[in-house]
Amino acid sequence: MPEGSKMKKPDVKVVLLGDMNVGKTSLLHRYTERKFKDTVSTVGGAFFLKQWGPYNISIWDTAGREQFHGLGSMYCRGASAVILTYDVTNWQSLAELEERFLSLTDTANQDCIYAIVGNKADLTDPKAQLSHDSIGVSEDQTQCEEEMTEPQILSACPTPPASPESLSGLILHKQVAHEDAVAFYGRILRYKGLEDKSSLPPEKMCFETSAKTGYNVDALFETLFDLVLPSILRKRNENQESPTVDLEVCRGAGGRRARSTCC
Amino acid sequence: MEAGTQEMPAFMTNRDEDVTSDSWRQHRKHVFVLSEAGKPIYSRYGSEEALSSTMGVMMALVSFVQSGDNIIRSVYSELHTVVFLQKGPLVLVCVSNSRQSEEQLRGELLYVYYQIISMLTQASISRIFEHKKNYDLRRLLAGSEKILDGLLNLVDSDPSFLLTAIHCLPLASSLRDSLSQILQKAITPNLVFSILVAKNQLLTIVQEKTVIEDARLEPADVHLLLNLIGASSAFQAGEIWTPICLPLFNPDCYFYAYISYLDPPECTVCLLLLSTDKEAFYAVADCKRKIEEAMVAQNALSLIAKAHSYSVSQVGVSDLRHFMYKPFDVPDTYRQLTQFTSPEMEAPYSSEEEKMRLLDLYRYMHSRIHSSTRPLKLIYHVAERETLLAWVTSKFELYTCFSPLVTKACAITAITKLLRWIKKEEERLFIRYPPKYSTTPNPSKSSRGGKSDQQDSTENGFLTLL
Prior knowledge:
heterodimer; A: alpha/beta; Rossmann fold; six-stranded mixed sheet; 10 helices; about 45% helix; about 15% strand; globular; B: alpha+beta; Beta-Lactamase; five-stranded antiparallel sheet
């Protein structure tokens, strides 16, 4: 139905994958609505359009339930970025990514980028327990993550809690270490045959986030959006060049080669 | 399944309930689903793990009776009725002190079964259990408990389920027609149903022509769809794309449902488009864009917002407090879409308890009318705080509730007036002629499309139309 395509055409597609209950919908909700909500299980997949500068980014939030696996490859088709989400307090959720979800990404773009995201960091990590609600904080988040400058975050927090425990009451045992995620990222690159190439470094692509407090959530999405920009631009350029020109180029090249072998 | 239990979030209070407590025992209606191997699949209250021994006893009862070449149907105690329903490899059990009839409770269990089928299909459930008898079906249903919880709450509070009929929002027929036309114009290949819902009531439904010839859309399937909308509204700005099976239409295949609200952030008007093509999301989403534009152009959303259910006082019959009317003679619709109409529940039935009490009275009347041993055509029942009259003819099924002091003669006159009023308002109260469209690809295309569809259906059991 080409005549009906009045909708803003999405430039790129980002897909959230991961086992049920790791917090995919909550992450997206935190990013788009700036708040945390205990959501009910997603049915199938939910499609969102996000304006990022002049670009339209489409985001598929998918259900983690095995029941919906049949549609996984449809959600991933042509994706430019896939966010593989696990729960830092649940080792199995990382294992599931490798066992069940990685193969769904086979339909994604060749140059698709992958982010590994350990959500629910607030349950294991005091620095992730602080509120990151205000927009101003999001600017500092990448820095916070790297330098762990706690006073900086505290200053942005209107009423800093006396102790981290006062927020959630207890610190859970962290089952998935950052290194496990980094190792998994390495295996993804190998699986995709992207090793050694100019692929993105794991320290840039492995995140720990908290949808509950907002910790690292903006950093995750904004890093990804920035990274998919080249793919948007490449796609736009491809579209601008008319197919006839492409053919001419091919024929010209082929012709030359033919001639050269002839001589 | 360790992962599943570990992840059960704290807010799912139904699951957290202590199954040894008195309050657990006192629930009005328990529903359990287990596999033939006795593995727990679902419990309305309390976690399945905690109830595994209880469910073991249930399965023992089922097997014991089965070993004598019999089927256990129900157990009665002074306070409780226990009803069993066996469907393929699943056993469903209801333990109720609601005084509902066995048939009604079994009907409700059937809804639970259908809801499970709508998520997994009958074919895949049979396949799974043929393959592995002690499979833990919660692996596939985990996260869907809320959909089943929601269904059971609806079954208790919405008479649509009791009547197996659809409640549509009263609407000027001109407005309903123009909404139907908007839906009729926004089509794409393989689109089979376009459904518009407001305030959880049907506004209009447009169906693919050949679908209507082949089979009709059963009210129960529509109820499951409405329940799905209710359960998936967590994140209302997005557009949902999900497989769903309509068990009465075809229990073994999936449709693909597109669900989107047309009026965010209020989210009262919901569009549901069903396609048979799992890849059709973007084409179907385009249909929504068209529908949205047409509705803006016609100012339809604000007109829908003004539509609301009606008050019984509009009927103008004193002593009449409430009624439910299910016609069998509305042209064209009975065969295609069984509907009923009912006013708002107003004082003295405005509190939740009183609403439930009235519904229970209706359920009692319904069970007497539809009794398998001694069915009735007419029943006049003087209850403590009201008087009820139920009447079934070849043309309608009617339940009325009067103030307690009404006389029999008064009630009969009132019903004559009521029937006259409904006849007059028929156009507004019901969807008279469900409109149709044709979206099946033309034959030249379908040979190619058909092949790939076929492949799909053998692999995944997806529905093929042609």
